[in-house]
Amino acid sequence: MSTTPNESRDSILNTLRTKSCMKQDVYQRTLAFFEDLKEVLQEITVDLEQAVILHDKRLLVTYQDKGATGCEARVAGDVIIFHMHTNVFKLDQSHSLWKTSYLEDDTMRGYFGVVNVYNFLSDSFRYNRERDLGYLVARIFLNKEGHFFVQGKRQLGFLYNDLESSIMDKGRLRGLLQAIILYVLEFDLLAPPYDQVNQVTVSEMNELSASPVSTGKRLGFRFQADTDEIL
Q1: 8, 88, 94, 181: which has the fewest Cβ within 10 Å?
Q2: Which residues on neighbouring strands pair with residue 114, listed in sequence order?
């Protein structure tokens, strides 16, 4: 049975009043969360810088604001980039969280703002090595009620996967950011296999300040060198 123009209009208005308003709520909450993230990240880097400089002045820890949707922390030889996506995402329907009572009771809780966290080598930017690889080390998901979970490796995945009980505040945020920094510092640069780098072209060698091969801590975003899966 076809719908009448009035019925279609009512459906549109209902969707705008429910789903579209909810997405605005998620976006505004994510925007406020990202401002808190920048504030807490700056506090952490200042504290670490003041403590570590007394031990070794070569160890630099800095923070840089990159605007409304970005910021970065440089910790010794690593750069950690935080990027807030401006769109709202529905959790993949195959995700196990849809089987929880928290999302079954209100499916609108399954829409999230997302902050992506990337790890690069400081030298990749210092020497403009454009072919160097960066890695997605975590994704922070925040819903309309301020509940959150994290997709990531090792402790980043299993410490922050209880959506129903995890409500974001500055205390939890500080713990999460410290866990990210610790993971990055323990995520080591590995020498590539000899056979992978035993040939280079003349143009590669002539590139100013360029490395003959891409440099990265692992073999790609799938983290093949790690045995544990992203949650």
Answers
A1: 94
A2: 141
